[in-house]
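User: My advisor asked me to double-check a structure prediction for Caffeoyl-CoA O-methyltransferase before group meeting. I don't want to rely on an old file, so could you generate it fresh from this sequence?
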Amino acid sequence: TAWKDESGEFDASWWAQPGTVDIAFVDANKRAYDEYVQLVYPLLRTGGVVVLDNVLWKGKVADPEHADKTTESIRQLNATLFHDERWTYSLLPIGDGVALCRKR
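Assistant: Sure, here is a fresh prediction for Caffeoyl-CoA O-methyltransferase from the sequence you gave:
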């Protein structure tokens, strides 16, 4: 089953019960990725995965000369998820970068 919300708002409470989601794909406002991950976390079952698109942000995340708010936000998100004991985190350097976050 797939759900898509293009309204700019994210309220998962109407479509999923806690611990029932296997996978969530996030391709949205990059500066709000952390918020989306926090909202999805309780919905995921143990072993469930959040896929985050564009986590290299046109290569800017790997270039320290880029310090715009969006780039810094994605950098911080990558670091936070990597060190968060609730997740197994992998960043795949394919396309514009894809992060796989598996709930422990």
